[in-house]
């Protein structure tokens, strides 16, 4: 009950990610579950995108 299934999260954020997903991890940080997606942007840059697993909201994007 603390996290949505990955398939539901992907349905919500795939357009927002806008890039090719190359890795996914699931971890607990600061008392919440997060999905961490590693994506390759069209220009070739690797970016980490953190998504709240309970809501599907993108929390942060950072270059790797």
Characteristics:
64 residues, alpha+beta, four-stranded antiparallel beta sheet, 1 helix, 19% helix, 50% strand, globular
Mind explaining what this structure looks like?
The protein is α+β, with helices and mostly antiparallel strands and 64 residues long. The chain contains 1 helix and 4 strands; from the N terminus they run αββββ. The protein has one helix at 6-17, and strands at residues 20-29, 32-40, 46-52, 58-63. A 4-stranded antiparallel sheet has the order 1-2-3-4, with helices on one face. A hairpin with a 5-residue loop joins β3 (46-52) and β4 (58-63). It starts with 5 loop residues before the first helix and ends with a strand. The mean pLDDT is 91.
């Amino acid at each position: 009950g603390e996290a949505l299934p990955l398939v539901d999260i992907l349905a919500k954020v795939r357009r927002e990610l806008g890039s090719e997903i190359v890795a996914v991890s699931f971890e607990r940080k600061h008392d919440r579950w997060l999905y961490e997606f590693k994506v390759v942007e069209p220009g070739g840059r690797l970016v980490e995108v953190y998504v709240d697993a309970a809501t599907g909201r993108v929390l942060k994007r950072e270059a790797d």
